[in-house]
Specification:
By secondary structure, the chain is an all-alpha fold. The protein has 18 helices and no strands. Helix 2 packs across helix 4, helix 9 packs antiparallel against helix 10 and helix 15 runs antiparallel to helix 17.
Length: about 375
């Protein structure tokens, strides 16, 4: 009888979540409509298809095992080879090459790797926020995340497929964190695998994601041994990728050229550009004004209502509400001195707009501490 009761509860829980997944699925469909037509479209980083084809060429070589995972592209640089994927995450291009091996055309394979992050990013986000929010607030937050401008901008405008993949594994990281907070051991596996996937998808995004994750851990999970072990496990699983990156960093000299350092200072925007509809330097379109104001008005609303949450809830509100505001501040010219001082390290990011990969996760997520505090 006990087993029968558990079975009925499982079925009821499944049915309860079915409608929200359908609703989120409709918003996912809206986000990928631009991919569901014949032909292709131009982007800034307009070489995704070429990269997939070169990965496939390397995998077709008789000695492919000596270059797996693919780091060097033998036919480039006048057949001397070029370390294309030493510092550029290759996961999305491997997946694209896999679909070509399965018989899909180069264009369809490219569209598939553009399509996939829209799906798993929204699903991971819903599963993560569902650990904190009731059903319908979770659906609203997930729909907001699905159509958040940064996600579409990465695919349709920049063509930054590697960055888009890393961005959409970040909710998986916090799904693992929240499962660990509930003392569910599966959280260890989810967190470690998500860390690995973020790192091998796009290393620059992984720096930002790990900074966010570790900051959260220091504030809320400092004594949780399983959390820190999960991070170490994620690093261990991705050693095959980041260890060669560390080994070759002196030879590549990432911060020695202007493009990898001075460009950040050249692309800081006046704060007025966030509100007057102009374009932010670096080909970044202006986002609607309401997006950076969401955490500001959310925090103001809470304090005006004189809500008295617990100490942990207050820290959650401050963390999820003020961090996006600070990250938007880093896009403005007022943050020039901060970038200038930290340029030997932050110069690796090339453009300040990379911080938006964290913003587009945090702003939709800000609703859950607001709801809990209420």
């Amino acid at each position: 009888m006990k087993i029968k009761g558990l079975y009925k509860k499982y079925i009821n829980d499944y049915r309860l979540e079915l409608l929200p997944f359908i609703i989120v699925g409709i918003f996912i469909l809206l986000s990928v409509l631009g991919l569901l037509h014949k032909g292709f479209f131009r982007t800034i980083d307009d070489v995704t298809t070429v990269r997939i084809m070169y990965v496939l060429k390397e995998l077709h070589r008789t000695n492919w095992i000596n270059n797996f995972p693919v780091r060097w592209l033998a036919e480039l640089s006048h057949n001397y080879g070029y370390p294309m994927f030493v510092y550029y995450g290759a996961l999305s291009y491997f997946v694209g090459a896999l679909f070509m091996l399965l018989g899909f055309s180069r264009i369809v394979s490219t569209k598939i790797i553009y399509f996939l992050p829209f799906i798993f990013g929204s699903v991971f986000f819903y599963l993560a926020v569902r650990q904190k929010l009731p059903l319908w607030p979770s659906v609203i937050a997930s729909c907001f995340f699905t159509l958040f401008p940064s996600r579409g901008f990465e695919i349709y405008f920049r063509g930054g497929v590697a960055e888009a993949w890393a961005l959409n594994f970040i909710p998986g990281m916090f799904l693992g964190v929240f499962l660990l907070e509930k003392n569910k051991k599966v959280g260890t596996v989810v967190l470690a695998l998500s860390i690995m996937l973020v790192i091998i998808s796009h290393q620059l995004t992984s720096f930002l994601a790990l900074a966010l994750l570790i900051s959260y851990g220091v504030l809320f999970l400092f004594k949780n041994r399983q959390f820190w072990l999960s991070i170490l496990l994620g690093f261990a699983l991705s050693t095959f990728y980041w260890l060669p990156c560390l080994y070759y960093i002196k030879a590549v000299r990432l911060t020695a050229v202007h493009f990898n350092s001075g460009e950040i200072l050249d692309h800081l925007a006046p704060i007025s550009s966030f509100f007057n509809g102009t374009t932010i330097p670096g080909l970044q379109p202006n986002y609607p004004t309401f997006i950076p104001l969401i955490p500001i008005f959310g925090l103001l609303y809470l304090f005006l209502r004189r809500i008295s949450p617990s100490l942990t809830e207050k820290r959650q509100l401050i963390f999820w509400g003020t961090t996006p505001i600070f990250l938007y501040f880093l896009l403005t010219s007022y943050s020039y001195i901060l970038w200038k001082i930290t340029l030997p390290i932050t110069g690796l990011f090339q453009f300040p707009i990379r911080v938006l990969t964290i913003v587009c996760f945090m702003i939709p997520f800000f609703c859950w501490p607001v709801v809990e505090a209420n």
